[in-house]
């Protein structure tokens, strides 16, 4: 047998082969990392559909959690639990600390509280930010902390999806099946409530908006749980108000107890005798009447696609800030029957989803 001769292995080469053997392929190519920050608590009816939609977008485009990228998640729970400025600020501090430890390539931020307190402080930092479900105008945030040149070409490290509510179209759908003299918008003093009020101003209260509507529009800001209950009673007694928009989703009573969608929606279903539109169709599934609402799952997928583009090498500053594209015509037939409203067959056929509860 011939003697086998081995070339001398230098210390550097030895270290390299040992590293590859023990560490594996990730030594040569670091696995991508995505971190999702929720304004909401885990399982929230607004946050969870966006989260699941984003994960679906990842999977559909070949990005599987654990195989192709690592995923971190933090729930700030700023709607029901941590809903004072001090508590929100503390949650933001924790989220930023977790992001620093996780070192993600992209941070996906769901809703305004998280974007305002976590996303904006990361403007200009070496991490890509994709927001989803903003109610506040991006331009308003840009005045607080500059992060974009314009929506078409943001130019920095932040892009995302703005939650346009398509209010005019929703009112037209509702008015086509129900006699409405006056439509009442309800909002509250939370950041989301104020943002909804501004969307109404921008979309409805322009001269063009008023000319295109089939009924009178009125707005009312709810300052407390007690005021909301009184307002529902007043709506019931009104001969003019034919329907209302439930944009009041965070209220407190005189004792300081918080009421969110989880409490407000069941109360509304039990006590209101007029149909209510809602910001998203998960609320309709829970029992509100319906109409035209934002599809939060589709909005999450839309944001997830931006994350995929960035993971694949795109510059977030070159990805436009888009409106939520998909709105769904959705009705709850049980609620319609209780209210005595017959939904025309052509509208039912055009509906994206119909619930019974």
Helix-strand layout with pairing:
Layout (H helix, E strand, L loop, with lengths): L10 H13 L8 E7 L8 H14 L8 E7 L9 H18 L3 E5 L1 H8 L8 E7 L3 H7 L13 E5 L4 H9 L6 E7 L2 H13 L3 H5 L4 E7 L2 H13 L3 E7 L2 E3 L5 E3 H11 L4 E2 L3 H5 L4 E5 L1 H16 L10 E2 L3 E6 H7 L5 H6 L2 E3 L2
Parallel strand pairs: 1-2, 1-3, 3-4, 4-5, 5-13, 6-7, 6-8, 8-11, 14-15
Antiparallel strand pairs: 9-10, 12-14
Helix pairs in contact: 2-12, 3-4
Describe the 3D structure.
It is built from 14 helices and 15 strands. The relative contact order is 0.13. Strand 9 and strand 10 (258-260) form a beta hairpin. The chain has helices at residues 11-23, 47-60, 85-102, 112-119, 138-144, 167-175, 191-203, 207-211, 225-237, 261-271, 281-285, 296-311, 333-339, 345-350; strands at 32-38, 69-75, 106-110, 128-134, 158-162, 182-188, 216-222, 241-247, 250-252, 258-260, 276-277, 290-294, 322-323, 327-332, 353-355. The strands form four sheets. The protein has a six-stranded parallel beta sheet with strand order 2-1-3-4-5-13, with helices on both faces. It has a four-stranded parallel beta sheet with strand order 7-6-8-11, with helices on both faces. It has a three-stranded mixed beta sheet with strand order 12-14-15. The protein is globular and about 65 Å long. The protein has 357 residues and is an alpha/beta fold.
């Amino acid at each position: 047998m011939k003697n086998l001769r081995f070339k001398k292995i230098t210390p550097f080469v030895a270290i390299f082969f040992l590293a590859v053997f023990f560490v594996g392929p990730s030594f040569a190519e670091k696995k991508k990392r995505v971190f999702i920050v929720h304004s909401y608590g885990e399982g929230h009816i607004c946050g969870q559909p966006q989260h699941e939609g984003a994960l679906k977008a990842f999977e559909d485009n070949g990005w599987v959690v654990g195989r192709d990228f690592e995923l971190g998640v933090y729930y700030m729970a700023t709607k029901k639990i941590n809903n004072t400025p001090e508590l929100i600020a503390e949650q933001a501090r924790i989220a930023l600390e977790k992001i620093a430890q996780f070192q993600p390539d992209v941070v996906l931020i769901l809703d305004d509280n998280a974007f305002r307190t976590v996303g904006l402080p990361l403007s200009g930092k070496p991490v890509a930010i994709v927001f989803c479900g903003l109610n506040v105008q991006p331009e308003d945030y840009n005045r607080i902390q500059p992060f974009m040149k314009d929506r078409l070409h943001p130019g920095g490290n932040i892009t995302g999806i703005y939650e346009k509510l398509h209010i005019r179209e929703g009112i037209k759908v509702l008015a086509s099946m129900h006699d409405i003299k006056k439509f009442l918008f309800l909002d509250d003093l939370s950041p989301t409530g104020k943002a909804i009020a501004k969307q109404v101003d921008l979309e409805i209260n322009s001269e063009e908006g008023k000319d295109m509507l089939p009924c009178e529009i009125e707005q009312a800001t709810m300052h407390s749980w007690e005021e909301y209950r009184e307002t529902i009673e007043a709506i019931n007694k009104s001969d003019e108000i034919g329907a209302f928009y439930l944009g009041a989703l965070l209220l407190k009573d005189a004792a300081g107890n918080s009421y969110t969608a989880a409490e407000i929606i069941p109360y509304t279903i039990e006590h209101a005798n007029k149909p209510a539109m809602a910001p998203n169709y998960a609320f309709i599934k829970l029992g509100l009447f319906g109409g035209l609402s934002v599809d939060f799952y589709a909005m999450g997928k839309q944001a997830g696609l931006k994350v995929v583009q960035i993971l694949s090498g795109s510059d977030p500053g070159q990805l436009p800030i888009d409106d939520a594209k998909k709105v769904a015509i959705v009705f709850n037939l049980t609620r319609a029957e209780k209210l005595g409203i017959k939904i025309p067959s052509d509208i039912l056929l055009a509906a994206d989803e119909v619930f019974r509860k």
